[in-house]
Design brief:
By secondary structure, the chain is of the alpha/beta class. The chain is built from 5 helices and 39 strands. The mean pLDDT is about 95.
Length: about 350
Amino acid sequence: MTVSICLGELAEQIGACLEDTAASQQLVSGIASLKNASATDISFFTNRLYRAELQHTHAVAVILKPSDRQYCTVPVLLMDNPYLGYARAASVLNPPPPVIASIHPSAVVAEDAQIDASASIGPQVVIESGVCVGANTVIGAGCILQAGAKIGQNCRLIARVTLGGSTQLGDRVTIHPGAVIGADGFGLANDRGVWVKIPQLGGVIIHDDVEIGANTTIDRGALEDTVIGRGAKLDNQIQIAHNVHIGEHTAIAGCVGIAGSTHIGKHCMIAGGVGIVGHIEIVDNVHITGGSVVLQSITAAGIYSSGSPLQLNQQWHRNYHRFKQLDELAKRLQALEQEQQ
């Protein structure tokens, strides 16, 4: 669902300064790239590679930095962070559909489940005993809420989301299709070569304003809870093992795997394909680049990388064999240095 809004009102809502006040009553009904924007679309400029498109855009206005004003021929919305302005404008122009309070006839709802009268329960939903669903929350088609799960207000479970019984969601949590929250963690003891399952007795606590991507899995704790902090954003196909703690406003990209009992701080950024071993701690404000493997705790904020960039296979084989010789070469160099002394 899209809406139309006056340019001046849009500027106020996104926190921008509209330089040309005469344009304040022009209607905006969409957001588009500089190249494809029409006379009713707003656009944004953050990359100098698109300067030519900025100079020829047909957008009703462009969100940009004050330092880039000279390159634009249409009205501008000035912001120090135009990309943030784009995010806010897109949200204003494309609000979520309104919640229609209802329970679909095909939903199976336990008699003692507590469903707020303003919530929406979609088709083929299963809500077991003791579940609580808060006000204005939407439970989409095919979701399964196991006995005892608790969901706050204004949450959206898009479709086919499974919540284990020991899962608690705060307010304004969004979970995309196929996510499984609160399944058993991978807890096993070895009895002379035979694996013995360890009952997982903890839960999952997800705080306010968290978003969880499609097919991401978050395991319940073994004894204590797995915790996702307020405002954290998790991409698709992430595996979070039991007892992991993720701090507030940390963002994690797709295909990351986090082993059990690892604690990740606030405002961290973990890029795609990162693997993190268990029982370590990562402090606040750490950025881990894509494909890295984290084998030990990170105790200072900063940007961290590991792994080797892509190269021709033949070259990689040569470098790999040389890498295996590094220890021997280091010993020989040390011996030569001692001889010279």
